[in-house]
Protein 1
Amino acid sequence: MWPAFPPDQLVVFFLIFFRILAVLMLLPVFSARTVYDPAKLGLAFFMAIVTTSFLQGHDAMPLANDVPMDFGGLVLAIAGEIFLGVTMGFVVTVAIDAINYAGNVAGFEMGLTVANAIDPSSGLQNSIISNFYVMFASMIFIVTGLYLKFVEGIVAGFLKVGPGQVIVSAGSLHSLVELGGTIFVGAVSIGAPWIIVLLLAKVSLGLMARTFPQMNVFFVGFPLTIGLGLFIFAVSLPFAYAAIYATLEGSLTPFWAAIKAAAPGS
């Protein structure tokens, strides 16, 4: 049976809906282009119903009743909810971008950039290694239950920042700027084996070219870098799993930081 909300709480329900929808539009797997938009809307609508019912017994609902009912106030409240939802989803997107960048670096070092393929989740052209890592990260995100932690964070975030109580502060904007380093650190930790080994291989080929000028370095180097890259790919896959999981789980920290920065009085 569907829960019945008082008329004055319908505004609260839609504020919750807009924040959840904004997060889902950027959260891994849920934001993929292969997931139809009606499915995203339906999931956000269902989660908003459950969340509104959950919050009715907490202090977040009385605070949300102070939301202005005039048109201008509602527009600002909805904009604040969308901003917070986009911020929460963006921090997870940064982790996926770090994994994607690591795969692109590996593909470039192996010489596979000419064999780019379409990434089904984003619709963009990436290297084959990058596409594999993004799909591998999506599988880890679902199989390990990490998505449940983020869904729990979405619901628990309303206890910290009630509907219509979002404050766009300098702290929330500063937390977005700090995420730039996350891309670099995550990409290096995942792509380090390719960067180190293939760099040494190319340096060795350069020395061989100077020692034996008659040798065709490109003829020897191209299959060598691909073979080494595939070997590193097979050997480092268990370590890549740990690095990808740590990168995704590490995004929980800025995820909660974005919520705390938008709280009143932060």
Note: The CA atoms of residues 186 and 246 lie 9 Å apart.
Protein 2
Amino acid sequence: MAGKKIDYSAITNEILQYTALCESNSNIDPLLYERYDVKRGLRDLNGKGVLTGLTEISEIRATKSVDGESVPCEGTLFYRGYNVEELIRGARADGRFGFEETVYLLLFGQLPTKKELEEFCKVLSKYRSLPSSFVRDVIMKKPSSDMMNMLSKCVLTLYSYDTDADNTSLPNVLRQCLQLISMFPMISVYGYMAYQYYNKSGDLIIHKPRPGFPWRRIFSTCCGRTAVTRSWRPRFWMLR
């Protein structure tokens, strides 16, 4: 005789009772935050951002000085001192995809030469493969409608395939970063295709990426398309 099916997502009466117990015994007087100058999230009591660390990788300028006062303005994002909008305009003007060179900039602090970019793309292409049966055993089983959830699940599982996962030396961490950067396009596309198949009655076609292709074209080849069309792209990114 089959056992009773359990709904693991159900909010039962016991859960509601425990919730009330938590709320009744876990209250903190809001005035204590002001007394001890506790920062709640990334803002102080006046709504101003708090300094949480130092970095040279990126910067967001969200305010400007007007008559000696700091006022909000249209935000500007900088990568390693470069305005992101200028990076995008440069890539579009030259007909480049721009992803790999931006990764190079973020990791190494400078824009690559043409030769450096070619060598870097070869390294990423070499790492662009998933462990044996990973697509079947991890991605295809219970696909998520949330793409970030899918990526998180796959990254956590990839830990089990890494024979040197706990080595925090800079060379090993960089190796792990490059591998994940290379794998993310495939994981994203395969996860989307699995979701479409199981939840939207779509087609299930798994293609291997073509060696040497840039990041953006990996999406089209893994989906069996010659280009990332406008009709397809919004449906994919809607799952972000």
Note: Residues 226-240 have pLDDT under 50 and may be disordered.
Protein 3
Amino acid sequence: MARRSTPLISRENAARAALVVIDERGLDGWSLEEVAKLLGVRAPSLYHHFSGKSDLLAEVVKLILRDIAAPQIDDNDWKETVMRLCLEARQAILRHPQTATLLLRFFPKQFFIRAYDFWASVCPFHQSVQLVMLEGLEKLTFGSAVFAAAERADGKTGYPPVDDQELPHLAGALAAGTMSDTELFAETVRRYLAGFRGSPLRGDITLPPGSTTILLRRTHSTGDADS
């Protein structure tokens, strides 16, 4: 019999099969046997590609994160570009709410190193504040996504009913809120980024002799970074 030219199993297609099973059955109901059945192989075959279930689950997380679509960069509105990136990252996770806790266990920071370097390169603010910005955006985006996904996986959404007599201030804030969950997240990111208004821009700080910096301010005025 001729050998198959395309192998039945690769790390990526095994991870995609595992994701399908987890989406349908949840983390408590999935198994290597179900994944193998979907691939048309026997479960032991998976061990030729993964050291165990944890290795496969870590690959599932990477698969979800690879599906994040980077937005087109708007040179005139970098904050909205970043907000759209955060929104897409959150949505990529929410498409698979059953995997929420996997992000906590297998979050591959190394996976984002090159992406973080790129977004730092187009950030108009000085390097002295870039790490604060990157860390904050990461925690806002993935923290929000994990909490929202966990709620959806459990059949819950948003705040529970609030007694306006017992908790009048929270009840008032909820009553005044008109934004959807997605809109609320986007506005949260915008407000966070607005907090950097007044921070030093690239070229505003004198660097030690021998240091270099990439000037991205082009022909924009100082006010453009705050818009």
Note: The two ends are 66 Å apart (CA to CA).
